[in-house]
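Q: Given only this backbone (484 positions), what sequence would you predict?
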């Protein structure tokens, strides 16, 4: 009986559907959350609906990347989709904010399996030269979700129950799972190792504790911070001890220590910091300092979301001519070039300046991210490709958490230095009042503090460019057999 062969275009369609399911979840939930919290209550827990998802996704990304190397991509992908859909069904039935947060944790675990495995499957099926074009298509999925998500969320909230925000994932996930089942047939034998379940459990606890600790610095008191910090230190120490003893470590120090992988992951972490800084504070500047509408603030920020796939697509044209390292470095240089626009922003600046800065940052991240994925996947074999892909995504997620904490601390420092007694309620009223009722003193304090934040973000962006230049030259094979 002849062995089944993978149908690459339809397997790629399944990858894009799975990615779309994860991507649209972020934008559509953000749109619906005011109505959800209005019905469920629990406003103080508002941010944890998002933090729980990110915590679970970040903590499990590396675990599932390792599992994909040992058991095969198809198995992990199907498992991840199933977990994500179960979480989505339960979210729709949530009866309180704590229950919604718990079910969002389940969704995050599923996302931690789907996203790195999807990118690994693309790495298996397509050579480096083919993948340059494929990366542009994958990036377009995220741009499409940024446009469709808020629109779909608004329509669902207006005409249906908010539960359909989560249940919308069911047909998308079912189609993706069916596509993988029917059209993805792995020809390579599974890895010979095994998962160290103790390492995986300790790693999950350690990452969750570290991220919770970073979040606590801006939301909790000293006693809570001390307890979470102690838990993070103990869990991290136990993980290091266990990794040294384990014959199958979750994180291979030898793998992470290779110069191309270390440089790419370092740039990914720093890009995550810049990205969260931009998405968190640019809308506040445009609305609170420039006194523009939320719609204009959204357009200024969405330029980055549109620039990312454009950068990934444009990079295809330069990849064959100049090489992946040149494209990666060019992306690294564009990130601080775009971030410089935010340093010169003032209350009188045009939102067009902010939009152009966002666009350039997005172009740079698109070039850097797609080139980095191609580079790190090419220098390892099949049995390590899942782990190395997961490490790249893990670094970006961890960078987002670092960035939220660092830039939040810079903003608070700036507000204290300004001497203005600024509360969160006063900032909220400033954003709601509009130009007619704006408090000039509060606007000035906010402008100075956000300027300091943007200067810090520009410094991180410079580090992105510097890290990108540590990437060495790597030669790629023109073709790769599916079974490798």
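A: Predicted residues:
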């Amino acid at each position: 009986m002849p062995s089944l062969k993978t149908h690459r275009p339809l397997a790629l369609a399944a990858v894009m559907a799975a990615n779309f399911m994860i991507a649209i979840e972020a934008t559509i939930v953000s749109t619906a959350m005011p109505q959800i919290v209005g019905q469920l209550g629990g406003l103080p827990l508002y941010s944890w609906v998002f933090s729980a998802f990110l915590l679970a996704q970040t903590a499990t990304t590396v675990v599932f990347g390792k599992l994909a190397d040992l058991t095969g991509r198809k198995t992990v992908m199907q498992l991840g989709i199933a977990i994500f859909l179960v979480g989505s069904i339960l979210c729709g039935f949530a009866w309180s904010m704590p229950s919604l947060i718990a079910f969002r944790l389940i969704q995050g675990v599923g996302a931690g399996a789907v996203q790195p495995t999807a990118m690994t499957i693309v790495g298996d099926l397509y050579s480096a030269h083919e993948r340059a074009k494929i990366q542009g298509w994958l990036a377009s999925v995220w741009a499409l979700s940024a446009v469709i998500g808020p629109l779909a969320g608004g329509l669902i909230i207006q005409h249906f129950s908010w539960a359909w925000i989560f249940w919308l994932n069911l047909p998308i996930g079912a189609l993706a799972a069916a596509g993988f089942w029917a059209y993805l047939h792995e020809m390579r034998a599974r890895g010979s190792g095994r998962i160290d379940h103790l390492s995986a459990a300790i790693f999950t606890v350690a990452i969750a504790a570290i991220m919770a600790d970073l979040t606590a610095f801006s939301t909790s008191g000293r006693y809570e911070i001390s307890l979470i910090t102690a838990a993070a230190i103990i869990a991290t120490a136990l993980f290091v001890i266990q990794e040294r003893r384990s014959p199958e470590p979750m994180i291979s120090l030898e793998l992470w220590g290779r110069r191309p992988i270390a440089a790419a992951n370092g740039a990914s972490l720093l890009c995550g910091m810049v990205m969260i800084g931009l998405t968190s504070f640019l809308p506040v500047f445009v609305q609170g300092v420039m006194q523009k509408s939320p719609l204009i603030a959204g357009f200024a920020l969405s330029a980055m979301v549109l620039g990312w796939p454009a950068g990934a697509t444009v990079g295809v044209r330069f990849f064959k001519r100049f090489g992946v390292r040149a494209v990666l470095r060019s992306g690294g240089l564009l990130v601080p070039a775009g971030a410089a626009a935010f340093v010169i922003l003032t209350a009188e600046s045009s939102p067009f300046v902010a939009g152009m800065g966002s666009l350039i940052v997005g172009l740079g991240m698109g070039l850097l991210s797609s080139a980095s994925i191609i580079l790190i996947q090419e220098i390892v074999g099949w049995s390590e490709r899942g782990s190395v892909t997961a490490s790249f995504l893990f670094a970006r997620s961890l960078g987002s958490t670092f960035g939220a904490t660092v830039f939040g601390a810079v903003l608070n420092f700036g507000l204290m230095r300004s001497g203005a007694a600024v509360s969160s309620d006063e900032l909220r009223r400033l954003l709601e009042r509009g130009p007619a009722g704006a408090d000039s003193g509060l606007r000035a304090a906010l402008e100075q503090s956000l300027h300091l934040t943007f200067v810090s973000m520009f410094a991180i962006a410079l580090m992105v460019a510097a890290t990108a230049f540590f990437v060495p030259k790597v030669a790629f094979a023109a073709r790769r057999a599916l079974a490798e």
